[in-house]
Specification:
single chain; about 140 residues; alpha/beta; 5-stranded mixed β-sheet; two-stranded antiparallel ribbon; 3 helices
């Protein structure tokens, strides 16, 4: 998987405030990184926003993976994609000096599945995803 397109909002303004959370949004299949931006208001506080976009064109938007579970198992497909998102998140946090900030996630559909697979989040808003869990270590 190539690096995902992303948008980082508020890091230069709020990055020096260690208690300000970084909220990551992960959209569903056929959408894009703009889809969940309005959901940031769920947190009702100042946050740093990190919006990811899948790299695979799908319908009128993008996906993080295509669920071809007849080619590979669900844990392999989903786990590998979740690992790539986790790794890119860590690189972005480090490059922007945001390590140590609380992490939260808003996930829809595929994004909800990922949000249940990464343990680093202090809070989650999960919508329309199933709860199966493949551990990212």
């Amino acid at each position: 998987m190539i690096d995902l397109k992303y948008e980082l909002v508020g890091a230069s303004r709020l990055g020096n405030q260690q208690d300000v959370p970084v909220v990551i949004t992960l959209h569903g299949m056929g959408s894009n990184y703009l889809d969940l931006r309005p959901s940031i208001s769920f947190f009702n506080q100042k946050v740093i926003e990190l919006h990811f976009q899948g790299s695979i064109e799908y319908a009128n938007g993008y996906a993080y993976y295509i669920p071809r579970f007849f080619e590979a198992s669900e844990p392999d497909v989903i786990g590998n994609a979740a690992e790539k998102i986790y790794e890119q998140t860590q690189r972005i946090l480090k490059a922007n000096h945001l390590e140590g900030h609380p992490l939260a996630v808003i996930g829809f559909s595929q994004g909800a599945i990922f949000s249940n697979n990464i343990d680093d989040f202090s809070s989650r808003v999960v919508t329309s995803g199933f709860g199966a869990k493949w551990q990212v270590t």
